[in-house]
């Protein structure tokens, strides 16, 4: 089952909220992304910001597992949500 943009946005918002509540991981994201607290608050509903949070979480399997377990999401679905939020394109890092 594919995600609608609205459903993906809900998961993206859950990811942002989960990260905001993670006292250990939030400073790592803030340092890595250069985002300020204001940027973080303003990005809550922004699909681009949500995508950056998902990209960050997907850098470590333990982070994916922790987030997905907390919201009851199958692990592989996180990548599908990320693609929908980003407009459907895959990321090519090379």
TrEMBL record:
Domain of life: Bacteria
Name under which the protein is recorded: DUF3572 domain-containing protein
Pfam families, per database record: DUF3572
